[in-house]
Structure formats: structure tokens, C-alpha cells
Design brief:
Helix content is 50%, strand content 14%. The chain is an alpha+beta fold. Helix 3 packs parallel to helix 17 and helix 14 packs antiparallel against helix 15 (280-293).
Length: 539
Amino acid sequence: MQTRIEQHRTRHACGTAPEPHVPVATGLRAAMPWVATLLLLVGCSHQDRMKDVVAPFERGDYVRAAEAVGPLLKDRQDSEKDRTIYELEAGAVFAAAGDLTRSMKAYGIADERMWEYLDDAPEVRISEQAAAILTNQTIITYVGRPHDRIMCATYQGLNHLALGDLGAAGVSFRRALEWQRDAVEKNQKEIEALEQKAKDASDSESYDTKAALEDAKVKAGLESAYGPLRELRGYADFEIPYATYLRSLQQVLTGRTDDIAQATVGFRRVAGMLPEQDRSYAEEAALATERATQGAALPATVHILVESGMAPWLRELRIDIPLFIRQVPYVGAAFPVLELKGGAIAEFTAAAGGQSRRSLVLTDMDRVIGDDFNRRLPAIITMTLVSSATKAIATYFAQQAVYRDNPNAAIFVALAGALYQVATNSADLRTWLTLPKQVLYASIPAPADGKVVVQLADGRSIGPLEVESSGTSIVHLRVPMAGVEPALRIMRFPGVGQPPSPSATAAAPAIPSEASDPPSSAKTDPAASDTPTTSNTGD
């Protein structure tokens, strides 16, 4: 049963006014100004704000999702701490709705904000971490996780491919590679810095986190919440096979011998990252490009990419932690728990020219996101323990001090302390919700009649789709849940060195675009300095 304070907190957090005419004692009525002030600390979680976007997105109503994300994005544009995550969400939603202009704008803003942390700005802001001890982790600026940064650049590259701009696509895919290298160089140092800050906080607040972690209730709660997640491991060196595969495709499409040689390396890297049962299409691509560097013609091919399901989300879990005070032995602490989502299609079959190919798994995003969460988890647990205990202990001793001098006034301190703990006892639930659960892929020789049919595992048949009969085509589908209409893009490239055919965008009609150009990055990507960004061929 919710207490009156918890009910008030829930209503306030979701933007609903408190119930009128709640009977309260005279002393409590006098304390209501404190209530109003403290409840300002409460805010909706990322999941709360995104529910009107995610719900239609999951049922395949991409236009409605885009309509819902627009006002939300506008509302968060002045939020320094979490604008980035909403730009990422908007980029994915607008792309599915067929509005590439707004998608590219959103990804451009997100990339520019995250690019600040590539070289100059520290990832772990000491002042924010200190403030988080007195409040919670939600006040810390969201600077993007490694997979956010890589996927943001990858999706921007995919947008450029859809527009036929191979040069700009190459810039974005190299940006993704730069983010991957940055993660390899800096991530462990950042985790160590965060863990050190958590240890320093524990020492400075004189709270024994080691003893708390040995407490039976805490151990049982943490093991139940996090035990199943420990097996999630990402790919080597923070690489995301999907990003590497698309970068290699772009290199093939330029038609340049040196790019095709690099694509061979990329496809082999993808094959090496995947389990044996999922490698065959990447191995075929590597063999084809290797032969092309020796003078053979590149085979006309259709690449089918299906982004299936929804990425993991974060929920809040309360676990009682010890305060080591006889009068108040335990207090509730809010921890973030990663939850995997079901409902995704597990496979598809592509049929063309009398042949059929079954899909394989190109990237398991559950693994990628779970691995990042597991890396940060020890520091998150320590900071949550310290923050929750510090606030509860301070409230208890403040109440005791006031009670000795003025028992009547102690009610104000008790109320303020209780509200403060309720208002700030929140886990950080920010994560990119509209990413896929998995990326499935297949490739098939281009058919002479230029027709491909994609049969999804949920029984839905997509096509016949028009593809190139003598060039390269990329068929891209976003299928958030089994049984829903996919967002479809077909990218057709008649031949190496020739202008691409006009691309089919999302199956859903595009919503009106705002007249605003994507921002240019505040920094220059050194890898892109000699590459034109407006060429249709990349030459």
C-alpha cells in the first residue's frame, strides 16, 4: 500500500495536481511550503516521458510516434543534463516515420553534444557526482554511452546512404569508428574514475559500503536483480558489428580499389566477431571484395537488414539497505535494473530469382547494452548506497537534535526529511529506448527481374520489393514488434561509379519537416578532411 507521501510523489512526478482538501493536522498544514519546495526535486523518469512515443512506435504507428516526440524534444531542448538522450530518441523515431531531415538534425545535435567529450571535457564531473550524493544520479549530465555514440553516427551514415550521398555516409561511418576507438582508450579509465569517486564518497560520508554489501537483505536483492545480467558480454573492443558492416558496404559502393580493400578487412572483422553460425554472409562479402581487389567484378547483391525488437529498458527496484543505527536499521534505496524486452521477430527469409536465404544475427544489442551496464554497475551500486544512506542518516540525526530542544518542531524536520528522501530516492533510468534488440541480416544475388520478397517470422510478407538487377541494393526494415507494419527503406545503387537511384524512404508517410538545417559539428573529424560530403558517388 502506498503511503500518502508516496501517492503525492507519484501524482506530482507525472504532472497531475495533488488531490484537493486533504485533511492534515495544523502543524502539517504549516509545513506545506516545505512540501512544495521539496517536491520540485521530483521529476518524471525517461520512461514516463517517452511512453507516448514508445507505445505507438512499438505498434508500428511511426507517424504518431514522431508527432509525440516533437513536443517532448522541444520541451527538453533547454535541458543541459538530458537533451542528448531525447535527440537520440527523436533521430530514430523521425527516421522510421520517413522524415530524414528531422532525423539528421536530431542526430547532428546529439553527435555535436557528445563530440565535446571526445577530447576535451571530462566524462566524470566531480561537482555533479558530489551533488548526486545529496540527490540522485538523475542530475548528472547524460553524455551518451559508447554504444549511443557509435549508433548515432551509424544511423546518420544510414540516413546519408538513403539519400545516395556516399561521401557524407563515409564521414559518418568513420565517426562511428572514431567513437569506438575512443571507447577503447578511455572507457576503462572512466569506469575507474567513477569507482574511485564512489569510494571517496563512501569514505567521506563514513558509510561502510562493504558491510552493507555483505548484509543478507542487500546481497539477496542485488543477486536477484543483477544475477541474470552478468552473462551479457559485448563484442571485442566496444565494436558493434552492424556499424562495421555498414561502413564496409559504403566502402564497396565508392568503387575505389583502396576502399574495397578496406571493406575486405571490415567484413572479415565482422565475421570474426560473430559466432560461427552467423558468419556466412560476412564471409561471402569478404571473399567477393577480396576478389574485386584482384580484378574480378563485384557481384550484384541485395543486402537485407532488419532491425528487430526493442532495446533493453531500465526499471527501478527498491532494496532495503542497512543504516547501522539501532533505532532505524534499514531504509529503502532505488537501484536501476536492466530489463530485456521480448516480442521481437527472430528471423526472416529473403527470396529472389528462385533462391532463398535465411537470416542470421548480425548484432545482438542486448549484449552491447548489457555489457556497458555491467561495467558501470559496481560504481552505480556504491553511489546509490552512499546517497540513500547519507540522506537517511542526516535526517535521523537532524530530527534527534531538534527534538531535544523543541519536540513540537521535530515534526517539521521529520516531514521535511521524509519528503526529501522520497523526492530524491530515484534511480537513473535514462537509456536509448528506441534502439533495436537485434539486427538480422542476409544477402542474396541480385535477381534478373529486380524483385525481392522478405518473409518475416511472424508471417508477414514484405514485397515484392524493387531492387537493382545489376547493381547493389540495401533493403532496411525496422520491425519494433512481431506483427506490426515495418518501416521500410530501399537504397539502390545501379553500379560502381554511377549515381544511385532515388531511395524509397519509410513505408509510413513523412510528417512535415521543420525548416532547420542540421548543425555542423563544433569539431572537425580528422578522418573526413579529404572527403567531399556532397558527392553522390564518393569520388
